[in-house]
Amino acid sequence: MSSIRIPPALRAEGGGEARVDADGETVRELLDDLMARFPNLRERIFAGGEIASFVN
What we know:
The protein is 27% helix and 21% strand. The protein has a single domain, classed as Ubiquitin-like (UB roll) (Roll). It has 56 residues and is of the alpha+beta class. It is built from two helices and four strands; from the N terminus they run ββααββ.
C-alpha cells in the first residue's frame, strides 16, 4: 500500500482528502485504485488518455 498526496486544487474531486492510501505495484495500478474510489479525478489526472504532466 502506498500513500498518495492529493493537492489542494484536486481535493474537491478527491472527496476533500489531502492524502489517501492506494493499492498497487505500479504507478498505473495506484492511479487505477484511486480512480475507482474517486472517479471525478479521472478527467483531471488523465489528459487525452495520458497521465497529466503535473502528476509526479
